[in-house]
Amino acid sequence: SKVAAPVAKLGDDVQSIIKSVVESTDCEDGRKRSSGWQPRDVYKAFSLLPSKHLPQVQREASEHRSLLRVAESKLDDAGFGVFAVRPFKAGMILCRFEGALTAATKKPAVRSQDSILTLAKKKVKAPGSKESAMKLGSSAARHEVAELQRMKSYMLSLRSAGGWVLDGSPIARALRRGSKAVELRVLCPGGKQNKVLRPIDEVGVGCMVNHGTKETANAQFILMKSDRSGFLPSEAYLQATRDIAAGEELLTRYGNAESTVWD
Questions:
Q1: Confidence class of residue 182 from pLDDT cuts 50, 70 and 90?
Q2: Which range (9-18, 38-47, 172-181) has the least confidence?
Q3: How far is CA 209 from CA 13, 17, 184, in A?
Q4: Considering the chain, what is the average pLDDT of its residues?
Q5: Residue burial 42-66, b: 16+ Cβ < 10 Å; e: rest
Q6: Cα–Cα–Cα angle for 123, 126, 128, nearest 5°?
Q7: Residue 125 and residue 132: Cα distance in Å, rounded?
Q8: Average pLDDT over residues 218-242
């Protein structure tokens, strides 16, 4: 019998686990025979697909979660990215974009950089000269500006699916801190939002996938209706648009208007 593929975690070395992952599968391309995967068309980016396909897509994304690794991106100033630790075929569902569910009408209060700098300088109390306090305040403010921009980069709009926004920043923070679980807000059929605690190794890491160009992108987001009534928000998944090699970073195009949050 084959051993289970190791769970890919932040900080693991891609090359060191590729061999063990491939050895734990039955096919040359790293695909498990037990998954029953059949070749699938590469859909149009941000296509809204019927709910009848959701169980198979969910199962495939779940099976592939442990075959992805979050690590330092190869792109300049991109922070972390997501890497394949075994080959994937075009059309395969790689992972889900998960996050806290937010109504798109609830635009966060993002102050301008100048206003944040002014506020931080007033709040910071530092020993020594007034100049040192101002310098410390400016540093703290710039950090806050950078953090706001970084948090916004983990969001995905579901405009054609009810106007919801997925905020992946809680997942990004949990991964950076090495947390074992993350708390997310989910929408229930009755319309109430509940908080659920999810093991970090089971949460989809679509929010960590970096932007690529038309030439370098190897994946795209598709949307799946989560119920026939259309009441619940659609779910977003990352699909391979071409064959992906072991050790390759996943890249997708965020330029589509569908993925722009709060223009």
A1: very high
A2: 9-18
A3: 18, 20, 19
A4: 75
A5: ebebbeebebeebebbbebbebbbb
A6: 140
A7: 10
A8: 88
Lookup: tokens for 220:
């795209």
What DSSP string runs through the chain? Answer: -PPPPPPP-TT--HHHHHHHHHHTSSSTTS--GGG-------PPTT-EE-GGGHHHHHHHHHHHGGGEEEEE-SSTT--EEEEESS-B-TT-EEEEE--EEEETT-------HHHHHHHHHHH---SS-HHHHHHHHHHHHHHHHHHHHHHHTTEEEEGGGTSEEEE-HHHHHHHHHT-SEEEEEEE-TTS-EEEEEEEGGGS-BGGGPEE--TTT--EEEEEE-SSTTS-SPPEEEEEESS-B-TTPBPEE---SGGG----
The one-letter amino acid code at 30 reads: G
> Which residues are 251's β-sheet partners?
210
Residue type, 242: R
48: tokens are 């809204």
Query: What percent of the chain stands above pLDDT 90?
Result: 40
Q: Are 54 and 232 in contact (CB under 8 A)?
A: no
The amino acid at 149: Q
Instruction: Report the relative pairing of strands 93-97 and 219-224 from DSSP bridges.
Output: unpaired
10 Å CB burial of residue 90 (0-12, 13-18, 19+) is middle
Which amino acid would we find at residue 210? N
Q: Which pair of tokens denotes residue 178?
A: 């090495």
